[in-house]
Amino acid sequence: FAEGQRRYLESLNAYARQFVQPAAKPDVDALFGIPPTVAIEQRTSRGGRKSTVGTLTEIHHFLRLMFVKLGTQHCPDCSSAIEPQTPDAIAARILRDYKNCEVTLAAPLVINRKGLYTDLAKWATGKGYGELRVDGQLLPTKPWPRLDRFKEHIIELPVATLKIGARNEAELRDALARALEFGKGVLHLVRDNTVTVFSTRRACPSCGTSFPELDPRLFSYNSKHGWCADCMGTGNTLPKWLRDTMRDPEQDATAAEFTGLRYDATAEDDDDEAPETVCTVCEGARLNPTALAVRYREMSIADYARHSVEGLYDWVGRLRLAGREGEIGRDIVSELKSRLAFLKDVGLGYLALDRAAPTLSGGEAQRIRLAAQLGTNLRGVCYVLDEPSIGLHPRDNAMLLDTLHALEAKGNTVIVVEHDEETIRRAHHVIDLGPGAGTRGGNIVAEGDAAALMAVPESVTGRTLRSPLAHPLHPPRKVDAETPVVTIEGASLHNLKNVTAAVPLARLIVVTGVSGSGKSTLARDVLHRSLRRLVLAESPVGRKKATKAALLQGCKAIHGWQPIGRVLEVDQTPIGKTPRSCPATYIGFWDAIRKLYADSETARLRGWAPGRFSFNTSGGRCDACEGQGQRTVEMNFLPDVKVRCDVCGGSRFNADTLTATWRGKSIADVLAMEIDDAVEFFAAHPAIQHPLKLMQDVGLGYLTLGQPSPTLSGGEAQRIKLVTELVKVKTDPAARARARTPHTLYVLDEPTVGLHMADVEKLIHVLHRLVDAGNTVLVIEHDLDVMAEADWIIDLGPEGGNGGGEIVFAGPVAKCVKAKTHTGRALKAFLVARGKRGANS
Fold this sequence. Notes:
The protein is 37% helix and 17% strand.
């Protein structure tokens, strides 16, 4: 992909390239036969608070275009259709409404456009005008001051200033004619710095209010020209500080959108955040009254945005355009059709176009990105997809695979990075890399179809296909009347329909269901956030905060939560953003290693404390790279280059510090050591060896102790977080009682993302270990291997969106396979197939 992009960018001139961050040149000798490339990356972010299904897929942009070209404008006050108005009618209204008032008649020359406008000032001077009105202020045309070229300006030509009355009606009509001529049919009347628009082309026949020409920005809730002034296009009531920030005239729409994103991020962690309420001015429509008063076929753009994908697809199919409408709308309708059809094909027909991006599930967000790219109907393109099966139920995954096959049938090449068994079995050609991970990988172990992989003994993928897991790996834990249970009563957030759910404690619970059925809403938004607040309110720190806002979110009550002493969400967010962060520092055993080196002979002779061996503080670290081991070199017209620090050679420490050794190795040698080797090296030190052994158990033995956190995948980061928790776990009940370890409820959102089938087995053992230690583990998951290991399954559905939000099954695996649900059928087919494959092998 990088080479395909690089070749395309090199065909552009240097001026165009400066606006695009170029891809680095891949480290290959040669690449032949590459078609144009498109990559759809694996991203967990869903978009800012102003992003919707319509904007993410560009459907809203085509609707905006349709409304500008084919919409009929109405007066927001009296609902009359806007019609042309004669200069005589404008003069009569000014004489009536502004009698005895001093006003300025100005011709609008520039409306909300960026630039310096030096030539415009010269033109005005040539016409005999010494001033122009710029953003409400009169500026001389000679010398013309330098305007901010990156700010939107309104520039008007002040034609005449006069007192309105019958005596000077002739002067008024003369000035009016000149202003309308320069303003191309539009006139601005300025009184006390308040502007009233008059137009010979667009005016209300009832109240006389004039309107400017329709502009696509009028229908955008990312633009101040179109958004509702109260909610800034978010559709929700905003706190005053955020409204003030977004109203700042120095900010443009992009900055405002960024502020919204930043606000979202902080709000996510705020336990006392009040639930968002729908904006009372626009009632969630996000746009201002002028935009909402434009109608096409008797409906506003917000009315169309409230349609589901399926509903709008049906409407577009029934739409008949003829004459002028047909010529203008032909291409718009064709684009709408292809995008809506693709969203339907990937199973998202139930989503409303105005659905906010942050409320989408991971699977929905992933498929929307796919639909946005693949719905463009390109041919002869090489698509590179990074784990498109993320967040997809087996039912939805089958639909996705059908779509990818259809894409290939159009003459495209589809390259998929994937761990999903069904995807591997249906692929025409599989390239299996290995044999291990990290430095032990990097070789092509096998190539061909699934059968070819199974024939290669060195292929781990082939082995897992040949001899899949035999379930159950752990005997199911019984759930009966004696089992303590947390009960969620009346959950009704987003699409949940007044649901009551029971979560048995000290068990492995899997929450599943088709994409968009309400899994994340129930597990994360309702259970996790409510329990976190309830547990915090019981602590001395939280008692004061508890009174500020209601503790429960999205439900009427939660019963039986008292045994829980701690609530933790283990997600796939990075464990650190700088190269100085690494597994050893995050898990916490780096401190013990530093103490070992501080006790070495050299360190004691020189009086070095453990702080000498930290790369986060000066003293022992390399000052040139500040302990990062690498430096970033900025390049013009080329991507930034990260190079190994030429002073310390990537060791992170200065030469003096490296003279201290322990068992013949310096502190830098330990950082570069793989975890598998470090387990043996620190065998005599349980405080260091124990977390290292746990990392080995979860399949991370190939990582080095000092691997920079930004280079870790989401799956690796999540497993490191699990190890951090496992370090605290006491398996012996007596030891647990002595340590007073609180009963912890762990909430994991799709922990199998990015994991190979062989690693999923290791993850399952880790989850069982957490439960065996007396904790409750609740997993949102679509992976059938994890489902088959559950003590209790909560299945939501029956469909996604408005068709979901109900619990269609709750119980053990043995009963789930008999249920007539999407999950029940998929799990039954999976276990039957596993049984047959196991017998054959």
